[in-house]
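Thread: sanity check for a docking pose with zinc ion

Original post by kr_44:
Hi all, I'm comparing my docking run against an independent structure prediction. Below are the sequence and the ligand SMILES. Could someone generate the full complex and paste the structure tokens? I mainly care about where the ligand ends up relative to the chain.
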Amino acid sequence: MSFDLYGQDSAAAVLKSHLRQGKTRHAYLFHGAPGTGRRTMALRLAMILNCQNPPAPDACCGACRMCRLIAKTEHPDLSVVAAETPGEILKIDAIRDLQRTLTLTPYEAKWRIAMILRFEEANPAAQNALLKTLEEPPERVKLFLTASAPNAVLPTILSRCEPIRLRPMRIGALIETLKQERNETGNAADAGVVERAAHLSGGRVGFAKQLTDDLERMEKYEADALDFLGLFTLNTREKFALAAGFRETRRRGELRALFQLWETVLRDLMISAAGASESGVPPSFIALKERIRAEASGKDPGYYRERLENLNQAVANLNANVSPQLTLENFLINL
Ligand SMILES: [Zn+2]
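Reply from moderator J.T.:
Ran it for you. Here is the predicted complex with zinc ion included:
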């Protein structure tokens, strides 16, 4: 086994060349949209570095104790750190706990591996705390960070990591991959389901697989997208009432996820308003194509571009700790 992940040839080439030259870095930042395979790629590197029977310097056997336990993230020399739930904050205590672990000699692996997932969720104090470890890494330690983009982490962090970029697949290629994989496992999925999942994933293979396996979840996304279309006709009082539901700051992560979904819907509306065939960009919600076409008919693409800009501002406000309720109110008022 090597880095045989769909459509990640350039990322794989960089890592393989480091391995073949025996020059792996002490820290990597795997960046790309969630679901593009950042964590899977990092885990595979951990397996290759620690495999007991490597068939080549840039591969692992996938069957030894090391490979099996690392793949399941159950090896004692592998630490995985992340905010409790996606969208929440990764705090300094978690980084300090990790640093204590990293000072220990590996129990049996060649390399002690620390994976810190979605590092953009680490608050500045936590990011700065990790900086010390990146500047003076303990012996026999490798650090693998994941993030949505290189500029989502502090520049001082980025400058001490080797960035590895993961890209979404083209939708057509992803559909073929999913169908082929389904056929091989004798688990043939409805072609329509595969296509809906591929489009909705925006080419992120991990996410597309989850959706293909979890029809209910895909239908929930589609229902939430429909709900969003309904927001355009709310009156001011209804908008304030909706925002009031997000009074509690712990709903921040939930709102962030909702904003991501709304962005996808707004893009579909913009594509539709521009004339789908002209733009060449594949839509996300193919199950709602007619509904979106009806909504966008007669509208200017600029109308939706402006709302996308407002949404980006709302996300920035949320990240800058403005309350979820106020953030949502501002966005809805300008919708
Ligand atoms: Zn192995």
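The longest helix spans residues 252-274. Hope that helps with the comparison, let us know if your pose agrees.
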